[in-house]
Amino acid sequence: MTTVYIWGTAERYENYRRAVESAGGRVRFGGSPAGCGALLLPGGGDMEPWRYGQANTASRGLEPERDAAELALLERFTSLGRPVLGICRGHQVINVFFGGTLVQDLPGHGAAGDIDRLHFVRTAASPLRELYGERHVVNSAHHQAVDRLGSGLRALQWAPDGTVEALCHRTLPVWGVQWHPERTGGYLDGVRLFRWFLSLCRA
Asked: From CA 150, how far away is CA 143, in angstroms rounded?
């Protein structure tokens, strides 16, 4: 059984643990990542803008310790060629790790109160299209987004306004989605994405 590493505590990321376990994996929170077959970068607050060459104009909920830890974990897992999945903030962390930038404040994509927005996405030929089709609904609960793509990255999915909703690395098993597969409703089977991600580890 593949063990997926998440930096942080089980209490904070319980919904990710449930999703990984529903897909047939298990999660290790914190401690050493040694022996873990994959890295999952979950959602959360914004990255420090200096990390992608900008002053802070609209970033909030900054977690400097987490930024440093997750970037170091990306260095470790990519150097080993092990699979990485970034979700929402994690999708953005991947882009910054590879030298990309972020839009610090993007209207129209944040949650409405405690309820995620829903919108359609268009998906390029990729495993994501094989999983969900060329056009499907995703949830949306973010105010930042990928701007300039990092080196070696390819955009795979777009919102109607052109926001990048998924990406991958061209040669490494690194994938990111801006939406939250761990908390989709009846409109999307999010666990299907986690099953596919775990299959990369077995491969």
From this structure: 19
- Name the nearest CA neighbour of 43 among 190, 176, 191, 188: 176
Which candidate, 184, 186, 202, places its Cα nearest to that of 19? 184
Determine the Cα–Cα distance for residues 124 and 135; give it in Å rounded to an integer: 9
| 180 assigned to active site | yes
Encode pLDDT of 166-203 as tens digits.
Answer: 999 999 999 999 999 999 888 899 999 999 999 998 76
- Strand order of the sheet with strand 38-41? 26-29, 3-6, 38-41, 84-87, 174-177, 164-169, 153-158, 117-123, 135-140
Q: What is the pTM of this model?
A: 0.97
Catalytic option among 36, 70, 88, 165: 88
Q: Is 169 a catalytic residue?
A: no
| 182 classed as catalytic | yes
Cα-based angle 42, 131, 153 (whole degrees, multiple of 5): 55
What tokens appear for 75 in the block? 């260095």
Q: What distances in angstroms separate CA 29 from CA 42, 60, 136, 198, one per listed residue?
A: 12, 24, 32, 17
Length, in residues, of the chain:
203
